[in-house]
Amino acid sequence: MVAPPLVSGRDCVAALARVGYTKTRQRGSHVRLERSGRTPLTVPMHDELDRGTLRAILKAAGLTVEEFLDLLR
Fold first, then answer.
1. What is the pTM of this model?
2. SS3 state of residue 20
């Protein structure tokens, strides 16, 4: 199993946008992303996301770490 990379909230949101998630609102430092037929996601806009937080976001999005790494490129 590959460990999730250290990425910023901004990079995470950009990668998730590539698979169809759109920003619907923001409250403080947390952005809400939605995609038709999927669970809404909340991403903290921190300089560096904790690996556990990123893993939970990817699980909710139905993505593997490898798929997410491809989206970052």
1. 0.93
2. coil
Sign, CA dihedral 48-67-34-56, equals negative
Task: Tell me what percent of the chain is helix, strand and coil, each rounded to the nearest 5.
Answer: 40, 20, 40
Range of the domain at 67: 9-72
Q: What is the mean pLDDT of residues 47-51?
A: 96
Q: Encoding tokens for residue 54?
A: 């990123």
Residue 4 lies in a domain: no
Q: Is 2 within the bounds of a domain?
A: no
pLDDT at 66 over 90: yes
Residues sharing a CB contact under 8 Å with residue 11, sequence separation 6 or more, in sequence order: 72
How far is residue 1's CA from residue 45's CA, in Å, rounded to a whole number? Answer: 26
Task: Indicate the number of domains in the chain.
Answer: 1
CATH for 36? 3.30.920.30
